[in-house]
Amino acid sequence: MEDIVRLNEIDQDVLLALLNKDKLGIRELEEEIKKVSKQRSPNAITKSVDKLLKMGLVKEEKEEKPPRGKRLIYLTDKGKEVAKHLKSIYELIGKSG
Predict the structure, then answer these.
(1) Of 75, 94, 85, nearest to 21 (Cα)?
(2) For residues 83 and 81, what is the distance between their CA atoms, to the nearest angstrom?
(3) Could you read off the pLDDT of 33-92 as tens digits, one per residue?
(4) 40: three-class secondary structure by DSSP
């Protein structure tokens, strides 16, 4: 799981927000992250998504119904695995504290 080491806090927030969701746009991701973490700017989330795309942890597709062209982000199988490991680590830390 060397990918976990390369993930910053925003990357982790994005993965965890997507773990139990089907597909989210950047604004929806921002709202999900705000529920459990610090508020993140859409620009920071977009940069994180681009990084996670390159790492093969998320995929994107363009929404077909209006508004057309909206980016929908979702986890790959590898991304789900990494997000589950992150969630386990967070739960372990929470239980020990």
Answers:
(1) 75
(2) 6
(3) 888 787 788 899 999 999 999 999 999 998 777 666 788 999 999 999 999 999 998 888
(4) coil
Extract the tokens encoding 67: 């508004």
pTM of the full structure? 0.85
In the structure encoding, which two tokens stand for residue 68, read together? Answer: 């057309």
More confident site: 22 or 49: 49
Q: What letters, b where the CB count within 10 A reaches 16 and e where it falls short, cover 28-67?
A: bbbebbeeeeeebeeebbeebbebbeebebbeeeeeeeee
Question: What are the angstrom distances between the C-alpha of 4 and each of 15, 53, 55?
Answer: 11, 14, 11
Strands (E), 1-97: 58-62, 71-75
Place of tokens 């062209």: 69
Q: Compute the distance between CA of residue 65 and CA of residue 39 in angstroms, rounded to an integer.
A: 28
